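Honest question from a wet-lab person: if I give you the sequences of every part of a complex, can you actually get the arrangement of the whole thing, not just the pieces? Trying it with mine:
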Amino acid sequence: MHVDIYRWGQQQQESSQQDLGCGVLALALLPPCCLCAQLLLCETCKTKVYPDNLPTTSVVIVFHNEAWSTLLRTVHSVINRSPRHMIEEIVLVDDASERDFLKRPLESYVKKLKVPVNVIRMEQRSGLIRARLKGAAVSKGQVITFLDAHCECTVGWLEPLLARIKHDRRTVVCPIIDVISDDTFEYMAGSDMTYGGFNWKLNFRWYPVPQREMDRRKGDRTLPVRTPTMAGGLFSIDRDYFQEIGTYDAGMDIWGGENLEISFRIWQCGGTLEIVTCSHVGHVFRKATPYTFPGGTGQIINKNNRRLAEVWMDEFKNFFYIISPGVTKVDYGDISSRLGLRQKLQCKPFSWYLENIYPDSQIPRHYFSLGEIRNVETNQCLDNMARKENEKVGIFNCHGMGGNQVFSYTANKEIRTDDLCLDVSKLNGPVTMLKCHHLKGNQLWEYDPVKLTLQHVNSNQCLDKATEEDSQVPSIRDCNGSRSQQWLLRNVTLPEIF
Ligand SMILES: [Mn+2]
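Yes, you can. This is the full assembly:
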């Protein structure tokens, strides 16, 4: 669905809502407990005092065939909800839109606004990455704030972001992204209890903020969360620092992967990436993108992700390659200048990032095996069957092609496939796939390299072949020393697959 509805403001007034005090209007949709927690957070945020002499920011907004209502809502909310002296300008970068109202009518409209709005046009469809680079190049503020074209800034959104950059110019900051429904335009407060991560396929994902990060902040939820990755649409960065760390990878097309690339680069090259919990910006989450991907979405994202993996992930790129058959056939172009950048900035290895910034990563820092798990008696392999969280893990004829038959037995003794871990919560099973929780418990497995058994520690039972009742799933039974309870953990190497 394309966002083109002109009743956004109206919708907000109709709903029962409560002002949480940080500019966030929480709707009745939030469960009461969340509301209280959010309310407390907002009340505490309101008492914060920020320095007067914060840096100025240019707000760079790229759009392509955006609806008038959502684009102007973004612009007006920046103007109305930011201290005037902190906004240098708004830069609207048109990535070759075709809609007429985005041409002359837009230019004459923004001329009347009380903040300078600079509309610049890409000569041809260039994609988010190159359009943002163009916007950044013409901007003049000390800080660049990138926003999507369908956002709503809330009261007090900007000061906490700029304060962090003033404190340390190598800190890159994201607001909490509140959710604006693309069906009803209802506004729902985003959570401060999730942060950015990624899975083996290099998809950005939200995961719970781990206990170590709560502890580091001594339970103070108004302090910024150090996040391993950013969602990408909304962030602020010191203008010179953006240049120093190498802006974006201009070899990437359209969009996809650039948010992880800049996240890895910030952390590995000496910066800090934070979610500032006292800053809220709403964003319309669209079900489909209006962007067209010349050559196909998959091809472009695979190319971008390959560049990301090849430049920043060292040997851990194998997790991406093994779970994504075919991706290594995608041409990713020349990365020598990005490797040169990594060298010049003396960036740390990916293992350092996993160890220090993202120890709860879905990619394990240490592991015993990455490959198939094969039953000795039946010669069948564990297979996630592309099933989802909470479903049973499957078993199928081994195909040796990676993908759904890739599992990692980690140093923490989990059996993982992507961000799911094999989990048993009842005697005699079933063996299900749940989000890895890193707390051992029902996800703890002991592999005996001599007996070749995979023993589930809590139940004290052994992983076994499929039963006659259900030939598609492995079973779990009392350990009996039979060959059907023996498993080979093979390290699949890339040349075997590709
Ligand atoms: Mn968006």
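Two things worth pointing out. The chain has a mean pLDDT of 91. The chain is about 25% helix and 25% strand.
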